[in-house]
Structure formats: structure tokens, C-alpha cells
Amino acid sequence: MAYGLYSHIQSNRRRSVVLLIGLFLLVYLMTLAGALVAEVVFGGDARLDFLINAALRRTLYSLPWVTIGTLLWIFIAYKFHQSMIDAITGGQDVTRQEEPRLYNLLENLCISRGITMPKLKVMEDSALNAFASGLNEKQYSVTVTRGLLDNLNDQELEAVLGHELTHIRNGDVRMLVIAVIIAGVIGFFAELLFRMFFQGGWRFGGGGRSSGDSDRGKGGGGPAIIIAVVLVAAAWLLSTAIRFALSRRREYLADAGAVELTKNPDAMIMALRKIESRGELEGATSAVMEMCVDNPREGFADLFATHPPIESRIKALIEFAGGHDPGPLDLPPPGEPNERDQQAIDESADAGARQDKPFLPAEPPVVLGGGGRTQPEPLAPGPLPGPWGIPRRD
Question: pLDDT, tens digit, for every residue of 43-97?
Fold first, then answer.
């Protein structure tokens, strides 16, 4: 397991570099598709080879500007991706004073393994979910929902925090953020291309031609548009494949890491059972859901699911960690206290009732007149007994 985990971490580092290189290749592919569309829309019909050659010239002319734009996008995403995620999810930083239970659990886990403590955020959402984000130690953060805090006990919440810390330790968080950046860039260029195609308004610079070129011919406009659409579709599919090609094994490893941190496989299983089918974050993008403990949004026939099924994850914890599965759980509706909260409410009510009633002994300590109370028996000769009935030493 140690070698496998080490290999996973090293593989994530290599994939991060490959993904960034792939990002530029996909952007250049989208640029070529846009150049083909521009040749047909703004230059008119021509032979297919003529259109392709002209599109290649325009693509080469625009590569420096496209590269600068992509680098700028990466810089913005690097600096402000957490602010963008918080704007989507509504996550807010919390301190020890605001959430002492949550803060102390995360701090204890970090201290136990010498991990730099990430920032802690809470979403005011009744869903049961959590995710980690960031690209380096200064940016890492763990976000949990209010529903998770209200429905999980300390052991289960600690297991979820251990799961997210493992994602940070393994480099999964960095990989997911880079994949999100790639998807955002490709989506932006795809929308820009289609807007240009259907609405016009942007022209590739350089290498223009006049309408009287004698060698341009006709009949290539339709095939050129089809090729451009295929290129756009290929780039979009590849960007999607990059996101979903991130091995779903990362979730199994994060579950195992949580058990390694907490030494409590049953807590991780109980947490998964409570989160099961209750993790949908309203208004969150698919990219954010891919970073969560569980993503209930599954693709066609589970082909594009970013997380393995809860049943498979629990089965792995039972088989390899010796956990016990209670089966699917029913939780109280949102707004109703769970068992732990109800117990705390009852204890508080009992304490309040005791405080409302004045303390009265069963009998008065002194009975005037000597009647109505049996006098205490005289003490036996010898040393007086000490506390708890133990004789005093001389």
C-alpha cells in the first residue's frame, strides 16, 4: 500500500505537467477550428485545401496571442480560483471561536501527521458534503456544509476531514483544479467560436486574401465547416476525458487515508452512508461537485461518473480495513435535530429545570426542640475516620 500510494502521488505530479501541456495543445486545436470557420464565414467559399492552408497561416499568426491569453487565464485561475469557488458555493472562512468543534478536529489531525493546516470554510447548505481545493500549501482549504456538521458525530466528521486531508497530501486537489482550469479554457474558446460562427464580430488577423484570387475555387466551405465542428467537438471531448480520466482510484485511496489517520474504518463507513444520496449542492457547477466527497451526478450508464459508487467504497473498507456496514441510513428531514442534537437538547432542558427549582434537602439539618428526628449514634472510641471511611493515621 505504501508503494502504491507513493506511486499515486508521483503519478499525480507527472500528470499535472502533462495536463498543462495538453491544455495548450487543445487551445491551439480550437484556434485552428476557429480559423477554418473565419475563412468560410468572412472569406467566402473556396476549395477545401485552399481553406485549410489559409486557416493554418492564420493559426500560426495568432499563436503568440493565443498563448498569451492562455497564460493569462492560468494566472487568473491560479490566483483567484478559490474566490471563484467560494462565490459559487458560498463558503465562508471560520475560526476556532466560530466553529470550535470542527476546527479542533481538523487541527488534531494535522498535528498528528505534521501536516500544514489548511484554511477551514463552512457552506450554509443542508446538503451533506465536503471538498478540498487549492494548488499549494498557502491556498489549500477544506470546505464542509452545515448539513454535514449537523448530521455527523465527531468520529464521522473526523473521518471526512481525514478524507479531504488525504486528497491534499496525495496531490489529488491540485490535479482536479488543473482539470477544472482546462475545462474552463476549452469551454470559453468553444463558446467564443460558436458565437463568432453564428453572430460574427471577430476576425483573425493577418494573411488576408482578396475575393478575386484565381486559385481559390469553390465547394470547400461545407466540408471546412464540418471539419471545424469536428475539431471543436474533439477538443471538448478531450477536455472532458481529461477530467474523467483522473483515476477514480483516488477516492479509494482517500478513504484508506482517512482510516489510516483516524484508525476508525467504521466512522468512515457511517459517514459515507449518511452522505449517500444527500450530497447535491444546489447551484454548484459540475467541476465543484467533482471535488466533493461524493458526487451524486452520474453520467450516462456510469460511464462519466467521477466517483466510484458508495457501495463499492464501503465494500473496499470492509474488505481491506475490517469495517462494518450498517446499511443505508434514514436521516431526519432538514431542520429536525438528529439523535446527537436531541440528546444535547434534552440534557440542556434537564439542566435548566434543575436550575429553576431551588435546592431543598429532604430533612432540615437541625430540628429545634429535639423532637421528630433520631439523634446520631455516638462515635466509637478511637481515631476519627478520614475521608471515604478510611481510618486516619496517627
Answer: 777 788 888 888 899 889 988 998 898 888 888 888 888 888 888 889 999 999 9
Pick the catalytic residue from 39, 156, 164, 290: 164
Q: Establish if 315 belongs to a structural domain.
A: yes
| 137 carries an active-site annotation | no
Task: Over range 237-259, report the average pLDDT.
Answer: 78
Give which of 165, 312, 133 is closest to 157, Cα–Cα: 165
Number of domain units in the chain = 2
Query: Domain range holding 237?
Result: 2-90+173-208+215-245
Asked whether residue 76 is domain-assigned, the answer is: yes
Whether residue 51 sits in one domain with residue 26: yes
Model confidence pLDDT, tens digit, residues 359-383: 455 555 555 555 555 555 555 565 5
394/392 Cα distance (integer angstroms): 6
173: which residues sit within 8 A by CB, 6+ positions away? 132, 133, 134, 135, 140, 167, 291
Here the CATH number for the domain that contains residue 305 is 3.30.2010.10
Which amino acid, residue 190?
A
pTM of the entire structure? 0.71
User: Which residues neighbour 49 within 8 Å (Cβ) at sequence distance 6 or greater?
Assistant: 220
The answer to the question of residue 287 being in a domain is yes
Q: Higher confidence at residue 320 or residue 390?
A: 320
